[in-house]
Amino acid sequence: MSQPQPSLATTPQVSALSRIVPDRRRHKRVALQLLGRFMHVQSKREYPCKLIDISVGGAAIQSPHLVPEDERIVAYFDEIGRLEGIVVRRFEAGFAFEIVATRHKREKLAATLTWLANRNVLNLPEGRRHERIIPKHNQSLLRFADGSVVNCRLLDISVSGASVAVDVRPHIGAELVLGRLRARVVRHHEHGLGLEFIDIQNANALRRYFG
């Protein structure tokens, strides 16, 4: 006799998390269709892609660009963030890669996937991981590891990251300081850079300072 299932209406996080967090046997995958980009770590060239499914251990993405096995890549999806990994399998429409991450990064990814899975199951509104605000005070500075400083313009900001308009293009993964916030470069876009904060910020403090 099958066991009764918990109600999604009352325990959505527990139900979704049980499908995502890895146990000792395998990583449990969640089907998610998200548009993004990925980059070859060596060549720094970027290509469009579409996420097919993902767990805290790996992901499968669709892309017309062929990638050899053992290639190291960095993928970026707005609602998930930056994922680094190694290609382990190719298939007709794309490839699968193993995610390389610290325990802390995997825990953050598990929490994000839990929210996304619950959004799909419960038909919650679309949206990014964290609310983005368009800052009124949008002029800031970027400070790089070599001590150089450049002016930038904030396009949007959230507790987890920011998008800035700037002419320079430091490499993906480069660490810098936006104002007084430590961040790393996770993508290049038409106007500048997509940044991920190294520490999650306080939403109220961001609104007071930039709003």
Descriptive report:
The structure is a single chain. This protein has helices spanning 12-20, 103-122, 203-210, and strands at residues 30-31, 35-40, 46-54, 58-62, 72-77, 81-91, 94-99, 139-144, 149-157, 161-165, 175-178, 181-188, 192-197. It is α+β, with helices and mostly antiparallel strands and 211 residues long. The relative contact order is 0.13. The strands form two sheets. Strands 2-3-4-7-6-5 form a six-stranded antiparallel barrel. Strands 8-9-10-13-12-11 form a six-stranded antiparallel beta barrel. Strand 3 and strand 4 form a beta hairpin. The chain has three helices and 13 strands, in the order H-E-E-E-E-E-E-E-H-E-E-E-E-E-E-H. Helix 1 (12-20) crosses helix 2. The chain folds into two domains: 12-122, Thrombin, subunit H; 139-210. Helices cover 18% and strands 39% of the residues. The model is unreliable at 1-25 and 121-129 (pLDDT under 50). It is globular, with a radius of gyration of 18 Å.
* Known CATH architecture of the largest domain: Beta Barrel
CATH H-tier superfamily of the largest domain: predicted glycosyltransferase like domains
Number of helices: 3
Q: Which outline best applies?
A: globular
Main beta sheet:
6 strands, antiparallel, barrel
N- to C-terminal distance: 56 Å
Give the H and E element order.
HEEEEEEEHEEEEEEH
Summarize the amount of helix as a percent range. 10-25%
Q: Work out the strand percent.
A: 35-45%
CATH topology of the largest domain: Thrombin, subunit H
Q: What is the spatial order of strands in the main beta sheet?
A: 2-3-4-7-6-5
- Overall mean pLDDT stands at 78
What is the gyration radius calculated from CA atoms? 18 Å
CATH class (first level) name of the largest domain: Mainly Beta
How many domains, as an integer?
2
Low-confidence runs:
1-25, 121-129
Return the structural class.
Answer: alpha+beta
